[in-house]
């Protein structure tokens, strides 16, 4: 009865069931490899070494762009809906609060800038040079992957932060126009999170 009232149909229940299912699948595969005498083949290090360094680098660049654009879109969604809703009560806020949308758009631009910088750091090599300097290429691939992932996650957090603060700024401005500048200062500090990721 508690399950039917609380859990069934909620997002947390779906996430929990998916997480448990994937975990059980990995455990079953690991046990199968172990009991069939092929436990050495179930190796995470082997998987990481088998993936090309160029794949890691390109995945990092994709993460930088994708997560930055996702954060910007999410922030614009949050703040845009509040601007539209608050604009019904006070139409004067529509133009002034577009600053929040511009801050969200800057987050996507941060991701594109980092992606362009990371693409220029991918080295091309011949097959002989690749086998001789394999450790260097693996190191560069991991560095580019984690640089792109870190930038993307920072910009995702920044976009959500700017969207939530921009939403609050729009609703507060609809009630009292004196609060807009004070909340805008908080929004500027929130957008600095994206710059920290870029730096």
TL;DR of this structure?
With 199 residues, the protein is mainly α.
List the helices and strands and how they pair.
Layout (H helix, E strand, L loop, with lengths): L1 H6 L3 H25 L8 H7 L2 H37 L3 H4 L1 H23 L6 H6 L1 H42 L3 H20 L1
Helix pairs in contact: 4-6, 4-8, 6-8, 6-9, 8-9
Walk me through this protein's architecture.
The chain is mostly helical. Helix content is 85%, strand content 0%. It contains nine helices and no strands. It has helices at 2-7, 11-35, 44-50, 53-89, 93-96, 98-120, 127-132, 134-175, 179-198. The chain is elongated and about 70 Å long. The mean pLDDT is 81.
Low-confidence stretches: none
Helix fraction? over 70%
Strand-residue proportion: under 5%
Helical segment count: 9
The biggest beta sheet reads: none
Structural class estimated from helices and strands: mainly alpha
Span between termini: 52 Å
